[in-house]
């Protein structure tokens, strides 16, 4: 399913945190949202998720999500929040997977299908040994995987991730983003992820959207958008971009540029 | 919906069940067994309460009276069916109501120490009763004249309690039903009504004070079949509603505000669950007076037994509430044969060590 | 200030003289008495300014200062105005200035307004013995002692039967009204003696359950009783056996109907008064009694679950009585009403209403008005 944002604005109270964002994410593609702290990245993603009020349209294969009720909308969207502290200490991973699927229902029993999907998800992400454990008994990396599993088990059309790697070590960062990319392609989802790490963004995202003070300043394929001068302008940091084997590019920050408050 | 192709050797026959599902089914079975055991224990406690009563009937007489009331001695029949049963059933129903109210509040307010009194329900009900007893007036004004005398005090207590919670939740709704807001408003209400209650106690003469004291300490002795019917009706109305939202409640417990992501209208759910809790707590308090700890302890017992999944936890909580209050009723009769201790006194005495244990034990496990 | 020790020695020297004095002789001050809480109290001079902690003690003053019972009262807790309006209206009608006496506003739990008490400059504070604990806790007794204001305790609750009369005698002695006190005391004692004789001659004591404040807490509540205070000793003194004392550990409490049924009381007594209270089923005995209302209320209370199973109900021996007698100077009236119900053959000739009228007429100047002491409850059909 392809996602397209049309002149999207997000309000927090009276403050317009994001305005005028128009971009498209094709099915099976990942969009990375970059920018400085306070640029509105998280607000954008939360707005698409339905957690904040928005103006403009969010179209999924043409259908405007903002016109749907919360239950309908949430069925199409998977959201992995920043940090995983919300996860209940007492429910096991399997319980949580069932909950993620059935939470909004007016029912009592767990449909057999949701049991199977939960199990499948455990297999998929290699989380079987954690099935009967609770989030309190896991490492941060495992908890983040569980958070991803909870979003994916609902088979969303749109996957939204807000800094999914900030608490992870090097290996887990790669692992998680590999999973995200693989699933995005396989399931034909439209994935939007907020990332701080420019290298990860350049490596795993098909396109990049850069925000500055709530407005989009650059959008397009990663290689095009992430240039030294653009990074200097938006981040105020002098960087070098190095080409490496296998077509990878490495972005190395050298120094903060004077005259800009960080 | 795009198909998710399974990795690994899993066949196209999705019906094959792996370890995780087997484990899950086993845990469900285990929880069902626990629930059945609890219900049995509850039934046993009810029976024991009926059998013991005030100790004036032999076991044989009780059995005869229960099984063949038509041919039993009329005194035995009256004692069993008119005197003991309303008391026992009231204890059971009130226990269930208070326990459910407690778990709903703990879920909604994200606070394991919440209980029906956190929102000032007990002091509001107490003041409603005081207003009726001491001032002879009702929140309904002259509309209350048609109320039968026996329901006058209870009705006032009930309405006060209900009105309080609705007021608090309406106020909190303006600021988005944040849990801190609701809790703080509840505390404010509690203090306000406690103060008013103190005034009423001060102005009460010795007779009224006597009535008020038994109300404030909790008493099962005013149980009548009418009240049993009313409480049962309220429970029959509310319980299915709760069970149908069991998933959403679990989500609320698991994710708090983040449950919005699952499409749950968190604000609406919090509001409706608080009203349900108010209904339950108010009806119980209006019947037996102010009885604490059941609403606090029963949800914790349930959590220890069956975990946080509200599909089980709700019913187990109800069963625990039934057990606790029925046992308290039993104890209140056994300590002083013939005379009856106020049941609220007993629950407080029994509940306190449990409460302390929960605090001290809970400290060792960090939630996040 | 003379040392208390010296004063006690002086009193001790005088005591033998006092004991020789006949009741008709005037009281000599300073006077040391033992009050009804067992305390030694010294009265330096005849008290003309008195504070009443329990306004119901005005009944005692009515017998001693017959022309003007309120003459000495400078401050009180006007409990009659709140608990016994009928009586208060009569008093106020006969002595209008009573309404002007400052009212501290408390009930009978022993509270007084210490500041008001002291600034009233009383020469004595009269209180009920049951209030002593509260008075001590508030430090009132200490402050009075420091100011040399005697605190005299009377009693009509802890041990109502002998103490009601002794209270009158004690106050009579203290106020130099011994003659008046003696008139009432001899009457009351003579009536009490008649009761004792009759009880001794009567058969075994009937088992009695006395439900105090019946119906006050609502028509489904049951059954509150008193064990060893108030109505408890009254029942015993009237020749009955109070079941409540067997069951209750403390002074008073609630007993289940089931227990009462199992104890098979021969007689069931309900006490009531003209209380205001929505949600209550009242038995408005006393002044301005409405027989019809009483009968209706009693029938309602007799319809409570389990009541029909009582032995007393089956025998038709259920009665109602005015509640106030449990701590009243004229409790001899209550005793007669109870005795008449407990031993009907023995005491067929008793007429409690007449006794009440007689006492008021002979020993006070309180105007007569109809006062209903007690009636039998309507018989439960079937």
UniProtKB/TrEMBL annotation, chain A:
<dbReference type="Pfam" id="PF00005">
    <property type="entry name" value="ABC_tran"/>
</dbReference>
<dbReference type="InterPro" id="IPR003593">
    <property type="entry name" value="AAA+_ATPase"/>
</dbReference>
<dbReference type="InterPro" id="IPR017871">
    <property type="entry name" value="ABC_transporter-like_CS"/>
</dbReference>
<protein>
    <submittedName>
        <fullName>ABC transporter ATP-binding protein</fullName>
    </submittedName>
</protein>
<dbReference type="InterPro" id="IPR027417">
    <property type="entry name" value="P-loop_NTPase"/>
</dbReference>
<dbReference type="GO" id="GO:0005524">
    <property type="term" value="F:ATP binding"/>
</dbReference>
<dbReference type="InterPro" id="IPR003439">
    <property type="entry name" value="ABC_transporter-like_ATP-bd"/>
</dbReference>
<keyword id="KW-0547">Nucleotide-binding</keyword>
<keyword id="KW-0067">ATP-binding</keyword>
<feature type="domain" description="ABC transporter">
    <location>
        <begin position="3"/>
        <end position="238"/>
    </location>
</feature>
UniProtKB/TrEMBL annotation, chain B:
<keyword id="KW-0812">Transmembrane</keyword>
<dbReference type="Pfam" id="PF01032">
    <property type="entry name" value="FecCD"/>
</dbReference>
<dbReference type="InterPro" id="IPR037294">
    <property type="entry name" value="ABC_BtuC-like"/>
</dbReference>
<keyword id="KW-0472">Membrane</keyword>
<feature type="transmembrane region" description="Helical">
    <location>
        <begin position="184"/>
        <end position="204"/>
    </location>
</feature>
<keyword id="KW-1133">Transmembrane helix</keyword>
<feature type="transmembrane region" description="Helical">
    <location>
        <begin position="32"/>
        <end position="52"/>
    </location>
</feature>
<protein>
    <submittedName>
        <fullName>FecCD family ABC transporter permease</fullName>
    </submittedName>
</protein>
<feature type="transmembrane region" description="Helical">
    <location>
        <begin position="224"/>
        <end position="243"/>
    </location>
</feature>
<feature type="transmembrane region" description="Helical">
    <location>
        <begin position="274"/>
        <end position="298"/>
    </location>
</feature>
<keyword id="KW-0813">Transport</keyword>
<feature type="transmembrane region" description="Helical">
    <location>
        <begin position="87"/>
        <end position="105"/>
    </location>
</feature>
<comment type="similarity">
    <text>Belongs to the binding-protein-dependent transport system permease family. FecCD subfamily.</text>
</comment>
<keyword id="KW-1003">Cell membrane</keyword>
<feature type="transmembrane region" description="Helical">
    <location>
        <begin position="338"/>
        <end position="360"/>
    </location>
</feature>
<dbReference type="InterPro" id="IPR000522">
    <property type="entry name" value="ABC_transptr_permease_BtuC"/>
</dbReference>
<feature type="transmembrane region" description="Helical">
    <location>
        <begin position="117"/>
        <end position="139"/>
    </location>
</feature>
<feature type="transmembrane region" description="Helical">
    <location>
        <begin position="151"/>
        <end position="172"/>
    </location>
</feature>
<feature type="transmembrane region" description="Helical">
    <location>
        <begin position="310"/>
        <end position="331"/>
    </location>
</feature>
């Amino acid at each position: 399913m392809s996602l397209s944002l049309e002149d999207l604005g997000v309000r927090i109270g009276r403050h317009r945190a994001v305005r005028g964002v128009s971009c498209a994410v094709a099915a099976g593609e990942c969009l990375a949202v970059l920018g400085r702290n306070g640029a509105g990245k998280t607000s954008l993603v939360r707005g698409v998720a339905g957690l904040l009020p928005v103006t403009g349209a969010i179209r999924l294969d043409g259908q405007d999500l903002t016109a749907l009720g919360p239950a309908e909308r949430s069925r199409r969207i998977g959201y992995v929040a920043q940090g995983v502290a919300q996860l209940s200490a007492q429910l096991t991973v399997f319980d949580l997977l069932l909950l993620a699927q059935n939470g909004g229902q007016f029912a009592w029993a767990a449909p057999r299908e949701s049991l199977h999907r939960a199990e499948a998800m455990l297999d998929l992400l290699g989380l079987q040994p954690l099935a009967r454990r609770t989030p309190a008994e896991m490492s941060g990396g495992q908890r983040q995987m569980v958070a991803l599993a909870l979003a994916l088990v609902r088979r969303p059309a749109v996957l939204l991730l807000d800094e999914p790697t900030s608490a992870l070590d090097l290996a887990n960062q790669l692992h998680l983003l590999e999973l995200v990319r693989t699933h995005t392609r396989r399931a034909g989802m439209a994935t939007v992820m907020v990332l701080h790490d420019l290298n990860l963004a350049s490596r795993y995202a098909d396109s990049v959207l850069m925000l500055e003070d709530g407005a989009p300043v650059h959008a397009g394929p990663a290689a095009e958008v992430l240039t030294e001068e653009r990074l200097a302008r938006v981040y105020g940091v002098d960087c070098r971009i190095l080409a490496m084997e296998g077509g990878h590019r490495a972005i190395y920050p050298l120094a903060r540029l004077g005259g800009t408050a960080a | 919906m795009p198909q998710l192709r399974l990795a690994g050797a899993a066949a196209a026959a999705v019906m094959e069940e792996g370890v995780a599902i087997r484990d899950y089914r086993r845990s469900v079975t285990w929880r069902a067994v626990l629930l059945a055991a609890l219900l049995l224990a509850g039934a046993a406690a009810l029976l024991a309460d009926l059998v013991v009563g005030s100790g004036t009937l032999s076991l044989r007489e009780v059995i005869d009276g229960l099984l063949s009331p038509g041919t039993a001695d009329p005194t035995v029949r009256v004692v069993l069916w008119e005197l003991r049963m309303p008391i026992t059933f009231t204890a059971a129903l009130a226990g269930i109501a208070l326990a459910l109210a407690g778990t709903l509040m703990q879920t909604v307010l994200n606070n394991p120490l919440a209980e029906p009194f956190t929102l000032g329900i007990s002091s509001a009900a107490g003041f409603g009763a005081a207003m009726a007893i001491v001032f002879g007036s009702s929140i309904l004004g002259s509309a209350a004249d048609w109320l039968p005398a026996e329901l006058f005090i209870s009705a006032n207590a009930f309405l006060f309690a209900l009105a309080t919670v609705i007021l608090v939740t309406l106020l909190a709704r303006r600021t988005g039903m944040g849990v801190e807001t609701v809790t703080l408003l509840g505390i404010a209400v509690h203090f306000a009504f406690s103060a008013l209650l103190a005034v009423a106690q001060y102005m009460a003469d010795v007779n009224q004070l006597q009535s008020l004291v038994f109300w404030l300490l909790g008493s099962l002795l005013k149980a009548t079949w009418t009240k049993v019917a009313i409480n049962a009706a309220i429970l029959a109305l509310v319980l299915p509603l709760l069970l149908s939202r069991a998933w959403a409640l679990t989500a609320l417990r698991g994710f708090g505000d983040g449950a919005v992501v699952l499409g749950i209208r968190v604000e609406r759910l919090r509001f409706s669950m608080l009203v349900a809790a108010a209904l339950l707590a108010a009806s119980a308090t209006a019947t037996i007076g102010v009885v604490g700890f059941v609403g606090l302890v029963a949800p914790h017992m349930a959590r220890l037994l069956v975990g946080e999944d509200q599909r089980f936890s709700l019913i187990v909580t109800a069963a625990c509430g039934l057990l606790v209050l029925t046992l308290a009723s039993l104890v209140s009769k056994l300590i002083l044969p013939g005379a009856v201790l106020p049941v609220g006194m007993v629950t407080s005495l029994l509940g306190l060590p449990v409460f302390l244990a929960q605090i001290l034990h809970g400290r060792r496990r960090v939630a996040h | 200030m003379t040392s208390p020790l010296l004063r006690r020695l002086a009193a001790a020297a005088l005591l033998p003289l006092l004991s020789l004095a006949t009741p008709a002789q005037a009281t000599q001050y300073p006077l040391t008495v033992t009050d009804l809480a067992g305390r030694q109290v010294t009265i330096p001079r005849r008290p003309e300014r008195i504070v009443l902690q329990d306004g119901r003690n005005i009944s005692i003053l009515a017998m001693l200062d017959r022309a003007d019972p309120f003459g000495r009262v400078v401050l009180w807790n006007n409990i009659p105005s709140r608990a016994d309006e009928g009586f208060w209206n009569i008093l106020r009608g006969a002595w209008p200035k009573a309404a002007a006496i400052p009212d501290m506003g408390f009930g009978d739990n022993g509270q007084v307004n210490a500041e008001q008490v002291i600034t009233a400059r009383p020469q004595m504070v009269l209180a009920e013995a049951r209030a002593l604990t509260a008075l001590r806790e508030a430090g009132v007794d200490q402050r009075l002692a420091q100011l040399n204001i005697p605190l005299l305790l009377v009693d009509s609750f802890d041990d109502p039967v002998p103490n009601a009369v002794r209270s009158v005698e004690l106050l009579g002695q203290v106020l130099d009204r011994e003659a008046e006190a003696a008139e009432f005391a001899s009457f009351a004692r003579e009536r009490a003696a008649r009761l004792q004789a009759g009880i001794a001659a009567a058969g075994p004591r009937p088992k009695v359950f006395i439900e105090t404040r019946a119906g006050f807490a609502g028509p489904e509540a049951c059954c509150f009783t008193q064990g060893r205070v108030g109505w408890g000793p009254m029942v015993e003194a009237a020749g009955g056996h109070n079941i409540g004392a067997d069951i209750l550990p403390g002074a008073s409490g609630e007993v289940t109907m089931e227990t009462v049924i199992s104890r098979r009381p021969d007689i069931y007594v309900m006490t009531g008064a003209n209380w205001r209270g929505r949600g209550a089923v009242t038995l408005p005995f006393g002044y301005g009694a409405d027989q019809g209302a009483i009968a209706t209320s009693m029938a309602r209370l007799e319809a409570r679950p389990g009541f029909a199973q009582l032995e007393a109900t089956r025998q038709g021996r259920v009665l109602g009585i005015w509640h106030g007698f449990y701590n009243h100077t004229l409790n001899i009236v209550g005793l007669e009403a109870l005795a008449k119900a407990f031993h009907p053959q023995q005491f067929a000739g008793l007429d409690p209403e007449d006794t009440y009228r007689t006492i008021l007429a002979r020993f006070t100047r309180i105007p007569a008005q109809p006062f209903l002491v007690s009636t039998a409850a309507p018989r439960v059909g079937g």
